[in-house]
Amino acid sequence: MKKEEYISDEMVVKRVNAAVKIELEKNKALGIPVVLYDREKQVIYREDEDGTRTEVGKRLRKGRYSEQVSQKA
Predict the structure, then answer these.
(1) Cβ distance 59 to 42 under 8 Å?
(2) pTM
(3) Which of 41, 47, 61, 71 has its CA 20 to 30 A from that of 54?
(4) Residue ranges in 2-73 assigned as alpha helix (H)
(5) Average pLDDT in the 43-62 region?
């Protein structure tokens, strides 16, 4: 392939975001619950097709891998 035929990273990201958005809409239409992550609160939610959210879990803060290894030693 020639260099001109490749798509840019920006286009790949746009296509992935569009595919995820379509899949989420499809799951809502089929009545499949969707799992969402709130980055600010660091909480995982399950959202049903009627819009109700239930908290599933919270993100655990474990630190960096190098910090975990030094604590075990």
Answers:
(1) yes
(2) 0.57
(3) 61
(4) 9-30, 65-72
(5) 87
Q: Are 31 and 49 in contact (CB under 8 A)?
A: yes
Tokens of 55: 């908290």
What are residue 44's phi and psi, to 5 degrees? -100, 130
Calpha distance 31→47 (Å, rounded):
10
Question: For residues 16 and 11, what is the distance between their CA atoms, to the nearest angstrom?
Answer: 9
In this structure, the number of other CB atoms found within 10 A of the CB of residue 21 comes to 10
53: pLDDT confidence band, cut at 50, 70 and 90? very high
pLDDT tier at 48 (50, 70, 90 boundaries)?
confident
What pLDDT, in 10s, does the model give residues 3-38?
A: 667 889 999 999 999 999 999 889 888 989 988 899
DSSP summary character for residue 46: E
